[in-house]
Design brief:
Blueprint lengths: L9 H30 L1 H7 L1 H25 L1
Amino acid sequence: MTAGAPGRSPAEIRRDIELKRLQLGTSVEALRGRVNELTDWRRQVEEHRSQLIAGAAVVGFAIGVRMMVRRRRR
C-alpha cells in the first residue's frame, strides 16, 4: 500500500509515524548545527577577516572626513 492510502493497518501507520519522527529528528539536528555555525561570531570573524578590515577602514575614513569638515566650519 502507498503512504496515506486508506485502509492501512495500525502497524503500517505506526511504522510511518516512527519513520517521520526519525526524519524530523535528523532534520532538527542538521538545522541546529547550521544555526550554531552561522551564529558563531568568532568563526564568522575568522572567515570574513578581510571584509571586516576593509569595512572598518571605510568607516574610519568616513569618520575622519566628517571630523575634518566640522573643524573647517568652526
